[in-house]
Write a structure and sequence with these properties.
- There is one protein chain.
- By secondary structure, this protein is an alpha/beta fold.
- The chain folds into 3 domains: 62-254, Rossmann fold, CATH 3.40.50; 260-320, no CATH class; 327-529, Nucleotidyltransferase, domain 5 (2-Layer Sandwich).
- Helix content is 39%, strand content 19%.
- The chain has 19 helices and 20 strands.
- The chain has helices spanning 12-24, 26-38, 46-59, 76-94, 110-125, 127-132, 199-213, 236-241, 260-263, 268-278, 294-303, 305-312, 318-321, 327-335, 387-401, 425-431, 445-455, 482-488, 507-529, and strands spanning 65-70, 101-107, 135-137, 146-151, 156-160, 162-163, 185-188, 224-228, 250-254, 257-258, 285-286, 339-340, 349-355, 362-370, 373-382, 404-411, 436-439, 459-462, 490-494, 499-505.
- The strands form 4 sheets. Strands 1, 2, 3, 4, 5, 6, 7, 8 and 9 form a 9-stranded mixed β-sheet that branches. Strands 12-18-15-14-13-16-17 form a 7-stranded mixed β-sheet.
- The protein starts with 11 loop residues before the first helix and ends in a 19-residue tail after the last helix.
């Protein structure tokens, strides 16, 4: 295996070769500069060549409006949001028609745009780049996401990156030169994955693509390129491909699992490259076998068919989405703003609801009732830990927020004794100051599911503490969480008969939902026993909060 190239040890002739190769080919530039600046070789796959060719087609005016749908982890951002703008700047300097360029990268995440814009700037600032294509940073540059450089022809190259919800008024992509490329508007994942839970949220965000984004072009021929991991039907890909926009987009996709039908959609050269790199013979195979083994992808597909059809196959299948157990309830909860930042009230009691795990996740939900509101203030899960771990977590949580626990509910099998220690989890909990109320498991899943559905209009879920995994990751970065478990629970799909079974899955999601469904079965009785509290004249509730 050849060593990673290092600029310091290269001869002048080798540096000239880097310059010539980079100017001639976007893929060559990306692979060379990734290696020079990252200190490791770029792991090339056929889809990288495919996307690099599409990127060159945009520069040369062959694609004016393009949508690139690719699976997560495919290095789409590395290609389109980081290296492509730099290569286009090089071409604007060197292709015989020196000119300025102006870039407007946008995303749902301001942090993502700033990170990408910073990476672009780092490439330009690098010793390697500056020796080959000298540029001078403008004195007006004050931020890593808002910068300008002058090339040796005194042409300007500007970039301003922000979120789609950020301040884009007065910003433009491209210049008023219509016969050549002068920059582009790049949409890198304009919708967050969490918006897939609400058609209204997706529609609201999509309308900004017309009202705000479309007007940011210096003239109509400035390209718009959207790179998106699809999230659901009705997302930005569907919107831009519909008659709701004034433009006609070309769509290109790279699914995580390729088959003969997909191969036949590729240009002949790319088709042969795909077959060569994937080892395709028949059936279905990973698009990038070195990174995503076929067996892993097939297991992910089985675990969550709908998520996989959208985010990995770039083909959301609403028929699979119909199997989501709490689909309507979740949509209403989101639209009513009941997924938000919830303050923890010291004066309110806390109930905990458990699902026990043996060689699996153990899950507990924390709930504070306030009048008709059932506030899910936290969810915690872990595995391969003793009962002491979870009890200590409860004590630490109580100390941190100054709360008091009223009742702990767990399945009856918490009283089963360990054969080695002769002590049950129930005994361990008592010894550590936690007294459980034991509840029998219901006779059917349908009963517990429907019990929670009845309570769903009263649920408020904390958007952070109920969406944090065992590693501390939150939101889109988190893996298994309470919030994601409720969303993921679905009836299993029978591939052979193309119907939904009564059984629910995936297994990890049932662990989270079994715990909160305990509340559905139990708390309805508590509500019946509660008496309305009288309020003195002038007494106000302190239980409200601002939705986030």
């Amino acid at each position: 295996m050849s060593e990673v190239m290092q600029w310091e040890t290269m001869t002048d002739a080798e540096k000239i070769a880097v310059k010539v190769a980079s100017e001639a080919s976007f893929e060559a530039f990306m692979r060379i500069f990734f290696q020079l600046l990252q200190g490791q070789k770029f792991k090339k796959n056929w889809h990288h060549t495919y996307e690099c060719q599409l990127a060159e087609d945009v520069f040369y005016g062959k694609i004016k409006r393009g949508i690139i749908n690719v699976a997560p982890g495919s290095t789409k951002t590395e290609i389109w949001s980081i290296h492509w703008p730099v290569w286009c700047i090089i071409k604007c300097i060197t292709d015989g028609n020196p000119r300025s360029s102006r870039w407007l990268p946008l995303s749902y995440s301001d942090d993502l745009v700033v990170e990408n814009a910073t990476r672009v700037k780092e490439i330009i600032d690098s010793e390697e780049f500056q020796q080959l294509w000298p540029m001078t940073q403008a004195k007006t540059t004050k931020a890593k996401h808002n910068w300008m450089y002058y090339d040796q022809n005194n042409n300007r190259h500007r970039l301003y990156g922000t979120s789609i919800n950020g301040q884009v008024t007065g910003r433009r992509a491209g210049y008023m030169i219509e016969d050549c490329f002068t920059g582009a508007l790049i949409l890198d994942d304009p919708l967050p994955p969490k918006d897939s839970d609400s058609g209204k949220l997706m529609d609201k965000a999509n309308k900004k693509l017309n009202r705000v984004v479309r007007s940011r072009l210096a003239h109509d021929n400035v390209p718009i390129i959207m790179v998106q991991q699809r999230i659901a039907n009705g997302d930005s890909t569907d919107f831009l491909m519909s008659d709701k926009t004034p433009d006609t987009y070309e769509i290109f996709k790279v699914p995580a699992i390729v088959d003969r039908e997909y191969l036949d959609t590729l240009p002949d050269e790319m088709k042969q490259a795909c077959i060569r790199d994937t080892g395709f013979k028949s059936g279905r195979v990973s698009y990038w076998t070195d990174k995503e083994p076929t067996e892993t992808l097939l297991a992910m597909e089985k675990a969550d068919n709908f998520m996989f059809s959208a985010q990995y196959q770039q083909n959301p299948d609403d028929a699979l989405q119909e199997g989501v157990v709490y689909k309507k309830e979740l949509e209403l909860l989101i639209e009513e703003g009941r997924l938000c930042n919830i303050p923890i009230e010291k004066a309110l009691p806390v109930y905990t609801y458990w699902d026990l795990g043996i060689n699996d996740d153990m899950v507990l939900w924390l709930m504070q009732p306030h009048r008709k509101e059932l506030r899910m203030i936290a969810c915690y899960a872990n595995r391969d830990e003793g009962m002491e771990h979870y009890i200590n977590w409860l004590h630490d949580f109580a100390d941190k927020y100054g709360i008091r626990y009223k009742e702990h509910l767990a399945p009856h099998d918490i009283s089963v004794r360990d054969l080695m220690t002769r002590e049950s989890r129930l005994d361990t909990a008592k010894r550590m100051g936690i007294k459980f109320k034991l509840v029998e498991r219901c006779k059917s899943k349908r009963e517990s599911i429907n019990a929670l559905k009845k309570l769903f209009p009263r649920l408020w879920i904390d958007s952070k503490r109920c969406d944090t995994d065992s590693t501390g990751a939150t939101g889109d970065q988190a893996k298994k969480t309470g919030w994601k478990g409720i969303k993921a629970l679905r009836r299993e799909w029978d591939h052979d008969n193309e119907v939904f079974k009564d059984a629910t899955g995936p297994k990890w999601a049932t662990n989270f939902t079994d715990a909160i469904q305990q509340m559905g079965l139990h708390y309805k009785e508590e509500v019946e026993r509660q008496k309305p509290q009288r309020r003195r004249p002038g007494q106000h509730s302190s239980g409200g909060w601002m939705t986030g």
